[in-house]
């Protein structure tokens, strides 16, 4: 059994060929797709965060709205770039969204991907020490995790506007248990091990910023194996969770074939990203019975407890809901995921 959700980048463009032409379209459709996915029996609605782009960028209003419109489905991000974040303000926003949803928030965070602008985090008021922006992301994360633990740290005013509880004060609203539902988007095996040491769940996408010459799914499976070994070594008491994302397109209708038929020939790709070799996973596009055979050989998908389906959100809510339904009904049961 696996948890199966969708991951939307929330693209919009004014093109007449797009079903998502404005930011308002992207936000409302993101909510509507989560409602539809919950009705179909999916387990998660996740959203990518990109700044300075025609994509979803401010996750917490969206997550709170999704939480208010749904009752069961997990809601989350994949991922928030911590280089841009004020961790204290983020802890308040995350606590509020989690409480609105009844404790369903699964917050994916990371160092982030290549940006739309040069050093965009500087426009948000963040200046890394010695130019090390990756270290800054981890520093912000360490503060966030402390805030989510809910311990008091701030000296109360002796003459406050409102009465204070005794002792040092924590940020409010605090949502109990959210600290255990933080995920780190790791793009290397070493980062996966660091993620385990910090007591965060592992979120791995269709990109790894390293390449050992083996197929993508095998390299990712090794990443997951190292993560779980490091988790055990760290002595954490709870069971960790691991998610992988995949582009899975069941070719059922003529429309499916028109949009994604050419992706039948998709393979892993190796390229240069930010000066280093990176390996990109392929798109799975085929008839459902062929997908079952292909996905049965994906070692990383087998190792993960959660699968996130990347959806082409500009094709609209109805198309993407049908895509999710086809995976849930035509593919997942044959693989023992349902």
TrEMBL record:
Q: Where is the signal peptide?
A: none
Q: Please provide, in alphabetical order, the Gene Ontology terms of the cellular component aspect for this entry.
A: cytosol
GO terms (molecular function) for this protein are: oxidoreductase activity, acting on paired donors, with incorporation or reduction of molecular oxygen
Q: Name the InterPro entries on file.
A: Bact_Lucif_Oxidored, Luciferase-like_dom, Luciferase-like_sf
Q: Where on the tree of life does the source sit, at the highest rank?
A: Bacteria
Instruction: Tell me the ranges covered by the Luciferase-like domain, including all copies.
Output: 9-257
Entry protein name: LLM class flavin-dependent oxidoreductase
The protein's organism comes out as Nocardioides currus
């Amino acid at each position: 059994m696996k948890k199966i959700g969708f991951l939307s980048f929330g693209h919009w463009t004014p093109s007449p060929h797009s079903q998502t032409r404005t930011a308002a379209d992207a936000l409302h459709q993101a909510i509507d797709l989560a409602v539809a996915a919950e009705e179909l029996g999916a387990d998660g609605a996740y959203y990518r965060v990109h700044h300075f782009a025609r994509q979803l960028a401010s996750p917490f209003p969206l997550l709170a709205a999704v939480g208010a419109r749904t009752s069961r489905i997990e809601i989350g991000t994949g991922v928030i770039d911590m280089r841009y974040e004020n961790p204290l303000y983020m802890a308040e926003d995350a606590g509020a969204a989690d409480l609105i949803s009844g404790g369903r928030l699964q917050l994916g965070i990371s160092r982030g991907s290549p940006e739309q602008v040069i050093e965009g985090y500087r426009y948000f008021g963040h200046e890394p020490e010695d130019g090390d922006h990756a270290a800054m992301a981890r520093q912000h994360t360490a503060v966030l995790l402390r805030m989510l633990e809910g311990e008091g740290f701030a000296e109360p005013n002796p003459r406050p506007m409102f009465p204070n509880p005794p002792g040092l004060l924590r940020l409010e609203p605090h949502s109990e248990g959210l600290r255990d539902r933080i995920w780190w988007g790791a793009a290397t095996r070493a980062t996966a091990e660091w993620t385990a040491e910090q007591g965060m769940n592992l979120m791995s996408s269709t990109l790894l910023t390293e390449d050992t010459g083996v197929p993508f799914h095998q390299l990712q499976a090794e990443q997951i194996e190292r993560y779980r070994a490091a988790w055990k070594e760290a002595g954490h008491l709870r069971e960790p969770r691991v998610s992988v994302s995949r582009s899975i397109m069941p070719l059922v209708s003529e429309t499916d074939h028109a949009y994604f038929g050419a992706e039948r020939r998709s393979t892993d790709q190796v390229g240069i990203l930010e000066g280093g070799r990176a390996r990109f996973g392929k798109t799975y596009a085929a008839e459902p019975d062929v997908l079952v055979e292909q996905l049965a050989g994906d070692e990383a998908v087998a190792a993960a407890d959660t699968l996130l389906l990347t959806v082409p959100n500009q094709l609209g809510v109805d198309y993407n809901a049908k895509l999710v339904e086809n995976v849930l009904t035509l593919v997942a049961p044959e693989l023992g995921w349902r």
